[in-house]
Design a protein that fits this description.
Elements: H1 6-20, H2 22-38, H3 41-44, H4 47-55, H5 70-73, H6 76-86, H7 94-112, H8 121-131, H9 144-157
Helix pairs in contact: 7-8
């Protein structure tokens, strides 16, 4: 198994950042994440907050197209549920944390499915990364290479 060193990963990240997004993206992302973390339940329940969270989220680009989630995000019941759930304490144990975050994302997808046919996985990943920035990556590709990387990372954590 060929695992990169921290220094190699930092060099790769710096190179990607320099080529693709630079400082402006990092500043925008930091401001966005700080705003999400500072928001209380009342603010997290507003349509303005959800518009930023779902449509103006700088965690990653939305890809080739976008799935319209506005029926759900305009529903105060959905917004309130997301707000409440996002502020629940996350378990410290890594296995319990993974189950909790997976459950939240799966339930979010199920609730969104009530108003749309296509599952907005990328949008949900971006929302989860905004709520839990230390537990998610901005890598949004769901292919075999990322699954392999995730398996390798779990080996390191265990």
């Amino acid at each position: 198994m060929d695992i990169l060193t921290i220094e190699e990963l930092q060099k790769i990240c710096a190179n990607v950042e320099r080529k693709h997004r630079g400082n402006e993206w990092r500043v925008n992302l930091t401001e966005f994440l700080d705003g999400v973390q500072a928001a209380d339940e009342q603010e997290r329940s507003t349509s303005e907050f959800h518009h930023r969270l779902w449509e103006k989220n700088p965690v990653s680009a939305v890809g080739q197209g976008t799935i319209n989630v506005s029926k759900s995000t305009s529903d105060p019941v959905f917004r309130s549920w997301v707000a409440k759930r996002s502020l629940e304490p996350v378990p410290k144990d890594e296995v319990a944390k993974l189950k909790y975050l997976t459950s939240f994302a799966d339930e979010m997808l199920a609730r969104l499915a009530k108003s749309i046919r296509v599952k907005p996985h990328l949008k949900v990943f971006r929302v989860m990364a905004a709520f839990y920035p230390t537990d998610f990556t901005t890598i949004a590709y769901r292919g075999a290479a990322v699954r392999r990387l995730a398996r390798m990372m779990m080996l390191i954590l265990c």
